[in-house]
Task: structure prediction
Amino acid sequence: MIFNVALFGLGNVGFKYDKYAKNKSYLTHYSTIKNLDGFKLSLAIDNDKNNRKEFEKITKIKAISTDELPRGNKKIDIVIIATPLKTHIEIIKKAVILKPKFILCEKPLSLSNIETKDIIKLCSFNKINLELNYFRRFEKSAVEIKKKLNNISFFRATVFYSNGFINNGSHFLDLITYWFGKPKNIFLKKQNGILTKSYKDYDLDFELNYGIGDVNFFSWKENLYSNYSIRIYTDLFKIDYDINGYKTTMHSRIDDPEYKGFKRLNEESIIIKNNLSNGFKPIYLKIYSNMEKMVETDFNKIQIVPKIINRILKQI
Result:
């Protein structure tokens, strides 16, 4: 089965990050669509004339603006939204005209609770499944960690991120909610800086409280070096999701060989394998599977991370 794809946005994550890649790459939406069986790029859309020209020059594929979108006579199964954050709701409104079955939108969906609800209503009313491109939750080590966390009764965790809470911290916020679910309480602890992008972003320290534990997020200065890591202590083991997830290890709880009746963590670690080098490939394969099986979106789960982001931003 081949699914026809409309790609909105031919900037960095849409096309440019790996535009000159010689080997198969899955770091952008265009390269993932091109290199995976089951997907066919039917429309390439960008309102920036220079982006369209560069895309056409390198790929030899015609790109159009949103004003040139076909109406009704072009079969589109999947829409990819890789445009700037502030454009999401307007682009999604235009995408609905194409009558897709699925929309994959870059994160975050919106910084506005009202816009988030409007997008959800729009997709739900038109029976369009929706997913945000928090691709890490579909990666092998993240799935394995979730399985291991099913049987714990207590935990404490720390998360380090850099280059903005909304831009990058939200990836790890999504991972935490994937592993532990919706938090009971959310507390902003400290604002460490403001980053000016196409939208205002922040370096924030904050805490998520759960019934059996808590997670503390700490921002890191990107100018020193990139820092993306998670450490989770549980009653059964310790997990280190380190070096942006490319090195994940687990130390299990064992009986202390020297002190009878006590326990400690094993010095020897177990490596949890990842496939992060596959970039967007796992999330696209999941979309393909869901499309074949006609799995419907759980819109309540989709809203968890946007709502947490908005709750934290309101505390600034």
Residues 165-180 form the longest helix (16 residues). The two ends are 48 Å apart (CA to CA). DSSP finds nine helices and 14 strands in the chain. The chain has a mean pLDDT of 94.
